[in-house]
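Below is how a single chain appears once it has passed through the pipeline. First comes the sequence as given, then the structure the pipeline wrote out for it. We keep one example in the README because the format questions we get most often are answered faster by looking than by reading.
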Amino acid sequence: MGLVFVAAALVVPQWMSPRPGADYVEIADAPYAPALPAARAYTWSCGRNEEGHRNTANLVVAPRVVGPSHHVHEYVGNLSTDVDSTDDTLARAATSCANGDRSTYYWPVLRTGARAGESAHGEIAEPVAVTLTAFGSPAGPVVAMPRRLRGAVGDANTATTPAGQATRAWTCSGTPERRTDRYPLCGRGQRVVRVFDFPSCWDGRRLDSDNHRAHLVFPAADGACAAGTFAVPRLRISVEYPRPDGDRFAIDAFPPQRNSPRTDHAFFVNLMPEPLMAQVVRCLNTGDGCP
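Resulting structure:
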């Protein structure tokens, strides 16, 4: 498989109180995303949540705790993920992934009829496409993710507590080279796209950490991992929706965050069967066995 160029999802955050008008931008006014060095890619499908698998749980941040009704997560992959999930129950469950990947992948739902800065909740928008891609490292080979590794991108409290986690982005299907941390207003015929680029430098020891980030961090701009960390496949999840009519759409968020787009976030728990992970690593390192 040939090398592909990957556009970074990192954008310069614009910290401000979320309010109508400030949280939406015409896609033509969004900045271009800088290109990352070339890297091989392995892409697979886990469907687009045709099963309607949604709940208020957060297996990574608050296991066994029911979340608030206004913060619903959408899942692909492991079909059993819920408030009472454990690593053992997940390992035995069925999956929506065509390649047998039992990992769980999730993010807040998008609602139409809602608007950032307002309290009204709209209807859940169903994705029309979800794409999972693992990228190699331009700085050298990657090693396998360990089973049960947790990964996080973005921050649900960013609107009120900026944390420098500008690691998720919004764009439109017709202009993927432009990225923004605001809700994009896309042209007719285009789709709204959320892009989650996860960190890919593992500390080699922990499967999780207190803040769910210290054990798995982002590489430098050239793709190199810091000393003491090891490059693992870099996961990207892209979620596409039909273009909403106007600016009445927003993600579920905690009330103080007022549905700000800057609070977008996603998580994964890696439960890929070891032969499948080995295939992914072989593809990314050598180009052999790529789909």
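Residues 24-285 form one domain.

See the next section for the split statistics.
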